[in-house]
From TrEMBL:
Name by which UniProt lists this protein: IgGFc_binding domain-containing protein
Keyword Oxidoreductase tagged: no
Cleavable signal peptide: 1-17
PANTHER family the record matches: CUB_2 DOMAIN-CONTAINING PROTEIN-RELATED-RELATED (PTHR21733), DOWNSTREAM OF DAF-16 (REGULATED BY DAF-16) (PTHR21733:SF8)
InterPro entries according to UniProt: Glycoprotein (IPR005071)
Length: 339
């Protein structure tokens, strides 16, 4: 009886939650793949690296027979300057079917996002496909934007650049997809204002950084602008571009341990500090080292909530490295404050 209750609760949670489904998990051979979701809901598809001819042969079929191919779903982008995806609305039930073989389906790399009823009832949620260079000028509102990246040529990497933000605004980047529940406190991978010694400090300059994720989302409040591109940026051996600045170093799963060195813009007449906010997940023997080499560094083990370290001086450079972290991932938001 307990097992039955647990199984029911698991199914109920799945039905009522947002879902990110890899297209290669659907079965081919003209079988029906039922979408297990609480209607009504919206569907969004990103499949940048999948062949158009294959996508044309995969259908989403609704109960009222509003059939649409996955090729059409990936091209529901009505705007010229951004790749915001127009949602496809499902009012009751739907399933996915295709005449492709199982092997053909297993080679797909795209994703499908399914919203919840609650999410589609608000007008401040949007989905953007990272399929080209886009400059986003976000209105002075409170919004949530989900970014999907299925570009396998760049290993699903998104570069964030040209950040511009008013001092009374705030933005938070999160890994994965948004849900109807509030995020765990201090579970963001990047933010501005930045958490500095347990205080929120607005940083006027943001360095270019990359995220190697198939899905991430931002929640912002106020006026913010930045660019996104399906491209990779390695911050190693870069130099910060302002006296007060922040950036991000990410190590994705599968990448071997390495040292990332970031030089700091020099002005020895100003006092300052550098610091890091770490979040992630590593194997039991893994750890991350952050700080000023040969001066002061901290050994840290990331969790699903931010851990912080601050050096009360600014060296020539700032370094991030890891040990036994190949099978894990971590995000280090660093900051430099000279004033």
């Amino acid at each position: 009886m307990i097992i039955s209750i647990l199984s029911f609760l698991t199914i109920l949670n799945l039905v009522s939650s947002q879902q990110l489904i890899d297209l290669n998990t659907f079965t081919g051979g003209n079988l029906k793949n039922d979408i297990i979701a609480h209607a009504p809901y919206d569907v969004f598809v990103s499949a940048q690296s999948d062949d158009s001819d294959l996508l044309m042969q995969i259908l989403l079929v609704t109960e009222d027979k509003k059939n649409i191919s996955f090729f059409e779903l990936t091209n529901r982008k009505p705007f010229l300057t951004t790749s915001q995806i127009e949602p496809f609305h499902v009012g009751t039930t739907a399933y996915v079917t295709t005449n492709l073989t199982g092997d053909q389906m297993k080679n797909l790399t795209g994703v499908m996002f399914i919203s919840t009823t609650k999410q589609l009832q608000v007008n401040n949620f949007h989905v953007i496909d990272v399929d080209k260079v886009q400059n986003l000028y976000l209105p002075d509102e409170n919004q949530t934007i989900l970014f999907l990246n299925s570009n396998m040529d760049m290993s699903r990497t998104t570069t964030i650049s040209n950040f511009n933000q008013t001092s009374n605004s705030s933005i938070f980047f999160y890994q994965g997809i948004p849900t109807d529940d509030d995020e765990k406190i201090n579970s963001f991978i990047f933010s501005n204002p930045v958490l500095v010694q347990n205080k929120s400090v607005f940083i006027p300059n943001v360095e270019k950084f990359s995220l190697n994720l198939k899905a991430f989302y931002v929640k912002y409040y106020g006026k913010v602008a930045f660019g996104v591109a399906p491209d990779n940026y390695d911050p190693n051996n870069s130099t910060t571009t302002a006296m007060i600045t922040t950036g991000l170093v990410m190590k994705p799963i599968g990448q071997k341990d390495k040292i990332t060195r970031i030089g700091t813009m020099r002005n020895d007449t100003l006092d300052g500090k550098v610091g890091a906010n770490l979040i992630g997940s590593l194997p039991p023997s893994g750890h991350v080292v952050v700080g000023i080499p040969n001066v002061e560094s901290e050994i840290m083990v990331p969790t699903d909530q931010i851990q912080s370290h601050t050096n009360n001086e600014v060296g020539i450079d700032f370094q991030v490295s890891s040990v036994n972290a190949t099978d894990g991932e971590y995000f280090v938001q660093y900051y430099v404050i000279r004033e």
